[in-house]
Design goal:
85% of the residues lie in helices and 0% in strands. By secondary structure, the chain is an all-alpha fold. The radius of gyration is 18 Å and the shape is elongated.
């Protein structure tokens, strides 16, 4: 999976975590009369939520290492909060075309940081 795909999954990971948490709540209610079944279901859900939180936190940690606050905000608004390009542009105070340009630079810088950490 390439780096940009990992970023694009950031918002989806948050939605998945919320879905697993809701499913866990529902399963707790369904399995309340079967404690051993509940424990197994709970463990499976909690493990998956923990894995997703780890993935999410790794990306957020990487984004936080960007030295440019505009790059950080742009990436967080776009990928963590799932905002559209126009809304991101308005939030960071740039035109849409400049936002695209900044996005490209932010991705390049983020990939450089990621490569430096990997080596």
């Amino acid at each position: 999976m390439d780096f940009r795909q990992r970023l694009e999954e950031l918002h989806t990971i948050g939605l998945l975590m919320a879905s697993f948490e809701a499913e866990l709540k529902k399963d707790r209610q369904l399995c309340s009369s079967l404690p051993s079944a509940l424990a197994n279901v709970e463990q499976a859900h909690l493990k998956r939520i923990e894995e997703l939180q780890g993935q999410q936190q790794a990306m957020l940690d990487l984004i936080s290492k960007l030295d440019n606050p505009t790059y950080r905000r742009l990436l967080l608004e776009r990928y963590q909060n799932g905002r559209g390009w126009k809304e991101v542009a308005d939030l960071i105070g740039y035109s849409l075309s400049n936002t695209y340009r900044l996005h490209k630079k932010a991705l390049e810088r983020l990939e450089n940081i990621n490569e430096q950490e990997a080596s």
